[in-house]
TrEMBL record:
Enzyme Commission (EC) number: 1.2.1.3
Principal EC category: oxidoreductase
A GO term, aspect molecular function: aldehyde dehydrogenase (NAD+) activity
Active-site residues, as the UniProt record annotates them: 258
Catalytic activity: an aldehyde + NAD(+) + H2O = a carboxylate + NADH + 2 H(+)
Domain of life of the source: Bacteria
Originating species: Sinosporangium album
InterPro entries per the UniProt record, alphabetical: Ald_DH/histidinol_DH, Ald_DH_C, Ald_DH_CS_CYS, Ald_DH_CS_GLU, Ald_DH_N, Aldehyde_DH_dom
PANTHER family xref list: ALDEHYDE DEHYDROGENASE (PTHR42804), ALDEHYDE DEHYDROGENASE-RELATED (PTHR42804:SF1)
Annotated ranges, domain Aldehyde dehydrogenase: 22-481
Family from the record: Belongs to the aldehyde dehydrogenase family.
Protein name stated in the entry: aldehyde dehydrogenase (NAD(+))
Keywords, ordered alphabetically: Oxidoreductase
PROSITE patterns given in the database record: ALDEHYDE_DEHYDR_CYS, ALDEHYDE_DEHYDR_GLU
Amino acid sequence: MSSRRSESGDRRREAVYIDGEWVKSTGPLRDVVSPASLQPIGCAPDGTAADMDRAVAAARRTFDEGAWSGLPVAERIRYLERASELYAARAAELADLITAEMGSPITFSQKAQGPIAQHVLTYFIQLGKQFEVEQARKGLSLPALVVHDPSGVVAAIAPWNYPQALLLMKIAPALVAGCTVVAKPSPETAIDGLVLAEIFDEAGLPPGVLNVVPADREAGEHLVSHPGVDRVAFTGSTQAGRRIAEICGRDLRRCTLELGGKSAALILDDADVELTMEGLRDYAFRNSGQTCTNQTRILVPRSRRQEFTDALCDMVSSMKVGDPTDSTTEIGPMVSERQRERVEGYIGIGRSEGARIAVGGGRPAGLDTGWYVEPTVFVDVDNSMRIAREEIFGPVVGVIPYDDDAAAIAIANDSDYGLAAGVWSSDSERAVGVAKQLKAGLLLVNGQGGSFDAPFGGFRQSGIGRECGIEGLLAYTETKQLPLL
């Protein structure tokens, strides 16, 4: 069956990708609806447990027969290099598609959604060229040969906010390591997930190496619990991550979980106001607030509280909310009605807790169609409030004052999460010193940081394991030792 890519711009996808073939799903077709216009922009299959069974069977057979895992790393990389070339040719198309699917502002999609995903793929290709499957170790004990075998069949599950990059952060290292993959894109961004399958199919990947089945949580849970799966790689909410960890724990199945965050921006008392606000325009509201690393707890020195608060309010008030296809739009719609209800629910919670809205708090005027919400600034926020402790996943920030650096560090670390944080200061050495005391996996200093060469992941309820860096590749291997003879 065709993937229905009959012409440029065709956004109907009527088949799932299993065992190197486009096959009819046992589930219905689902409209993919624009969160801006509320009109269908295409359709994709709604995968089922039966589809997952077929996909896992294909991945299992291919892995066990060695059709992929038995290839030298260099040969596997040649397939990925071809996929990377094909991806580059469709990166602009994918950026436009993601904007249509989930409302990411087009300017952001063009610089982040497509290009970052492309960079993830090329990064793991280059890392794979340096990867030593066998390593001789001669140290303090007996000499040994360390061998990195591929883990097996990987279930790769990605959310809708960065659908390409977060899926490729799992698929690319898994394929380099020699694993086979069953990928489950989110229903909201199912079409771009199937475009990714088209790219790998055109690259000539052997049947069963990569299987792509968009599906909802029920089918996803079936995939996670499937006895034919050796490792699960998941990005999503902490609530969903707990459920996946519970399922994997029953069989001691390996898992990598990149979950939620409630990141702090520590604005030190020597920070430049203008430069800090310019940075927070991005790092607090990236992707319309739908980014797990966004710095939504804005910690300001009490001595400059009013100055920074006024500047923040001015900056947020100036942000353009609107049509995500407009290149001047900074805040697009929430991905769905349910997501907007969640954000608005937290705005109501903030009010009830005694926090005060300084900017926003409602729906933008003139945007009656679409799941829009105003970017919102809360003041009079205490770190014990729910709006300071729970992930909202929308364009909502809270200003929290502190007395000195030690107090700021304590507030930032007083969280159930630990995914990311940022420090803003005119003294880089001082900022780095503060950042080193924060309990978070990704630390930015004046907006700088975030290398793919370094591991990414969180402390506490922000997840288990790491993606990217050599750590992100080794996650898809099992290590064994032999005597070095």
